[in-house]
Amino acid sequence: MASVTNTYARAFADAVFDGRLDPDKTLQEAQAVAEWVAESKELREVWETPSIIAEQKRAVLDAIVAREGISRLVRNFVAVLIDHGRTHFLGPIVKQFEQELNQRLGFIEAEITSAHELSQADHSNLEAQMEKLTGKKVRARYSRDESILGGAIVRIGSTIYDGSVAGQLERIRQAISS
C-alpha cells in the first residue's frame, strides 16, 4: 500500500508544481473529496463496485465537481484513481500528498497538545521555537488535552518534546524512585 500511495502522491504533487498551481488550494480540494468519500458509504460503493462502468463513476465525480467547484486537476486525479480501481486509497494518498507538498515547500508538520486553549501569541511563540529548533517552517495543528495539566507536548514526526506538567511530574517520580 505504501508504494501505491507514494507513487500517486508524488505524481499528483508533480502535476501541481508543473502546472504552477496553488498547492494549498489543491490540497484543500483533495482533502474535501477524500472527506466526502470517507463520509459517504454510497459514494464509496459506487466508485469501488466493479460492475459499475467507469463512465458512470466519472459522471458522479463530474456532478460533484460541478456542484462544489473543484479544480480540473483534482477532478482528473480522482478520475485516474477511479479508472485504476484505486479510490479506496484516496484518503492515504491525500495524506501522503500533503506530506509531499510540505517536504517540497520546506515545511514540517507539528502536532501541539496543550492543557488549555492557546492564544495567537502562544501559537506564534511555539511555532517560532519549533522553526528555530528544526530549521524549517512549521505547519502546526493544535489540540487540547486537560490531562497534561499545563505546558505543551509537541510531536514532529516520531520525535516528541514533552514540556507538560504531567510529563515533568513523571520525570520527577522516576528520578525519586531510582
Can you put this structure into words, describing what you see?
The structure is a single chain. This protein is of the alpha+beta class and 178 residues long. The protein has two domains: 102 residues, Peroxidase, domain 1, CATH 1.10.520.20; 71 residues, no CATH class. It has eight helices and four strands; from the N terminus they run ααααααβαβββα. It has a four-stranded mixed sheet. α7 links the parallel β1 and β2. α2 runs antiparallel to α6 and α4 packs antiparallel against α5. The model has no long low-confidence stretch (mean pLDDT 90).
In a few lines, what is going on in this structure?
With 178 residues, the protein is α+β, with helices and mostly antiparallel strands. Helix content is 63%, strand content 14%. The termini are far apart.
- Quantity of strands, as a count: 4
> Which radius of gyration do the C-alpha atoms yield?
21 Å
**Run of helices and strands:** HHHHHHEHEEEH
Tally of discrete structural domains: 2
Outline the low-pLDDT stretches: none
Number of DSSP helical runs? 8
How far do the termini sit from each other? 44 Å
Kindly name the structural category.
alpha+beta
Instruction: Give the overall form.
Output: elongated
Helix content: 55-70%
Strand content: 5-15%
The major beta sheet can be summarized as:
4 strands, mixed
